[in-house]
């Protein structure tokens, strides 16, 4: 009969996320994880598997607590407000990142995904979901008149995704409010509602 686990999985995953997030995948050993998570290496192998399996669990947990949570909170807002609130929170998180850890998902896309087809797929699926959130917001805003129709909703979804990734990468070396808000303003200008057509003056 298997012994019950003597630790809270959520608590130790939070610790694993923090370690991977700060140090990255390659620089982390299973011994490092054991120390960070307060477990023996045998407990880690028994509960999660090898380092790669722990990283997958930690990344899934991070995505659930960050992107999935954020989309869920903002999805109910008016579409233009949802986009602006999303980026407002991202900028604040980036400016408050004193250790310059960046975004674990973006870090994984740069460090792990190029060499691992499974992580390529996992990260791609998350980014597709974020892009789809932006596209849904834009389409809804175009329908209610709060967002202009000069650009298609799919293209704006891609542009907003690109801006998000750019902010998260750039903020690791230049976490400057003017810089990050300056990145956002030109893209937000594309969201401005269409100008109302001027009515022809009455014929006298």
From TrEMBL:
The entry's DNA-binding region: 29-48
GO molecular function: DNA binding
This protein's UniProt keywords: DNA-binding, Plasmid, Transcription, Transcription regulation
Every HTH tetR-type domain range: 6-66
InterPro entries per UniProt: DNA-bd_HTH_TetR-type_CS (IPR023772), Homeodomain-like_sf (IPR009057), HTH_TetR (IPR001647), Tet_transcr_reg_TetR-rel_C_sf (IPR036271), YxaF_TetR_C (IPR054156)
Xref: SUPFAM superfamilies: Homeodomain-like, Tetracyclin repressor-like, C-terminal domain
PROSITE patterns the UniProt entry points to: HTH_TETR_1, HTH_TETR_2
Keyword Transcription regulation tagged: yes
Pfam families named among the record's database cross-references: TetR_C_13_2, TetR_N
Alphabetized PANTHER family for the sequence: HTH-TYPE TRANSCRIPTIONAL REGULATOR YJDC, TRANSCRIPTIONAL REGULATORY PROTEIN
UniProt name for this protein: TetR/AcrR family transcriptional regulator
The organism of origin for this protein: Sinorhizobium mexicanum
